[in-house]
Specification:
By secondary structure, the protein is mainly α. The protein has one domain: Ammonium transporter fold. About 70% of the residues lie in helices and about 0% in strands. It has 15 helices and no strands.
Length: about 450
């Protein structure tokens, strides 16, 4: 009997040892369902930039500049793709210390069709492509701050350098396993800091450095085609499901809840903005409702993996109100020509959403797990508020300081702004030798 018991124990231990590698590497085993969802999510996020953001922005500018905005979005898509493949992905997600990755995966070295993304259940090729779409849309958002007046060559240099020295480090800090903000416990599901605070602050700095458009704010500069803007807005709304729910990196319950709260917040943001305009101007506008929708989407982005439906309603409604008044402050009171409202919508929304996840992640049916060593909800909220505030402040300062430096260097080297004559003529013709918009 003793012999049988001893033999059984040895067999059990051996079986456990054999099973351990399977447990350790279970996340690195391909899951076809997760892969299918991430392929879809990746296409949705790219769809947000081309054509979504391109059409949204192009409809908001004057007809003489519509092609310039479309061109800028397409050009950034190409340039960001090349940078990401050559070394961007390696620096953003390669092995490294607390602040930046290394060049071990430069030129996508070691990544083949059978390579599984570390700690995930999808091919690394899909993970590379999914994160590439984020690297594309973030600098594309920034162009709304200086639309209708920056040289195309300056825009290209700025977008490329900004992606390398501003976006990639913040991406690593927040989303890479060894990043210092990730280690600190910052909650940012899909880019409240990495995308929205980063791009919003950069757009504000760019608007201040390059200066106002000729005639702003006394001359009317109405959008030339709101039909185009609404079409782009619809694409952004649908594409954002890939942006947020795709960041769950699995076709699971988390992705389902993330998609639900994303939609709720977008609807609430659109409703709140519409009602405010209705009250203040006696008529609701199409421009207002689509801007409120974007505010709701940008604000829920960092919290989308942590809050429940009731938290999403509050976040969306708050986003519509806060971003509405921020837009009025920036343009009507301070007369800062952030042409397409990037900072008051994305920047302010990103800041608010990143901070309040510390509250709604633990209340109203929030999904956020308690931090290690903390047992009470009050203590968890207090602790998380501090972490979220650090992430917001550091990202905003990093983006502001380096954006300012990049713009000043480019201005000295090749100049940032087109001439007065070229601005009057329009960037479509002066920068691209093409005529503006017509159907």
């Amino acid at each position: 009997m003793i012999l049988i018991t001893s033999l059984w124990r040895r067999i059990s231990v051996a079986a456990l040892i054999l099973c351990l590698p399977m447990a350790v590497h279970a996340a690195d085993k391909l899951d076809s369902g997760n892969t299918a969802w991430m392929l879809t999510a990746t296409a949705l996020v790219l769809f947000m930039t081309v054509p979504g953001l391109a059409l949204f922005y192009a409809g908001l500018v004057r007809s003489k500049n519509v092609l310039s905005v479309l061109m800028q979005c397409f050009a950034i898509t190409g340039v960001a793709t090349l940078i990401w493949v050559l070394f961007g992905y390696s620096l953003a997600f390669g092995d490294g210390g607390a602040y930046i990755g290394n060049f071990g995966k430069a030129f996508l070295t070691g990544i083949g069709k059978d390579t599984i993304a570390s700690g995930k259940t999808i091919p690394e090729t899909v993970w590379v492509m999914f994160q590439m779409t984020f690297a594309i849309i973030t600098p594309a958002l920034v162009i709304g701050g200086f639309a209708e007046r920056m040289k195309f060559s300056a825009m290209l240099w700025f977008s490329a350098i900004w992606l390398i020295v501003v976006y990639i480090p913040v991406c690593y800090w927040v989303w890479a396993p060894h990043g210092w903000l990730m280690q600190m416990g910052l909650i940012d599901m899909a880019g409240g800091t990495v995308v929205h605070v980063n791009a919003g602050v950069a757009a504000l700095v760019a608007a201040l450095v390059i200066g106002k458009r000729k005639g702003f704010p006394t001359t009317s500069m109405m959008p030339h085609n709101l039909t185009m803007t609404v079409a782009g807005a619809g694409m952004l709304w649908v594409g954002w499901f890939g942006f947020n729910a795709g960041s769950a990196v699995a076709a699971d319950q988390s992705a389902g809840m993330t998609m639900l709260v994303t939609h709720i917040s977008a609807a609430a943001g659109a409703f709140a903005w519409m009602m405010l305009e209705w009250q203040h101007f006696k008529k609701p506008s199409v421009l207002g409702i689509v801007t409120g929708m974007v505010a709701g989407l940008g604000t829920i982005t960092p919290a989308s993996g942590s809050v429940g439906p009731m938290g999403a309603i509050i976040i969306g409604l708050s986003a519509g109100v806060i971003c509405y008044f921020s837009t009025q402050l920036i343009k009507r009171k301070l007369h800062i020509d952030d042409s397409l409202d990037v900072f008051p919508v994305h920047g302010v929304g990103g800041i608010f959403g990143t901070f309040v996840v510390a509250i709604f992640g633990y209340t109203l049916g929030g999904e956020q797990a308690m931090p290690a060593g903390i047992t009470s909800i009050g203590a968890a909220i207090s602790h998380q508020m501090g972490v979220q505030a650090i992430g917001i402040i550091v990202t905003a300062l990093w983006s502001a300081i380096l954006t300012f430096a990049i713009l000043k260097i480019i201005d000295v080297m090749i100049g940032l702004r087109v001439s007065d004559e070229e601005e009057t003529e329009g960037l479509d013709h002066s920068q691209h030798n093409e005529s503006g918009y017509s159907f």
